[in-house]
Write a structure and sequence with these properties.
The protein is mainly α. It has four helices and two strands. Strand 1, helix 3 (39-49) and strand 2 form a beta-alpha-beta unit.
Length: 66
């Protein structure tokens, strides 16, 4: 997403095109969940793949039963 670059409507198509190979690899792997520490990446991955995406700290929270 490139920070605010991909968030701007004029850059949306370019940003999604750049993310395309990442989306393809994620979809090929057929995961139940994608983990990223970047909020921008989280939003773009969810939008590009429709797969639930979360932050790694939330995985740790769940592992510790919190």
């Amino acid at each position: 997403m490139g920070g605010t670059f991909g968030a701007r409507s004029k850059n949306y198509e370019t940003s999604m095109k750049i993310g395309g190979p990442v989306f393809d690899e994620i979809l090929k792997a057929t995961p139940d969940l994608v983990v990223t520490d970047c909020l921008g990446c989280k939003l773009q991955i969810q939008h590009g793949t429709s797969i639930k995406t979360t932050h790694p700290i939330l995985i740790l929270k769940q592992a510790y039963g919190l």
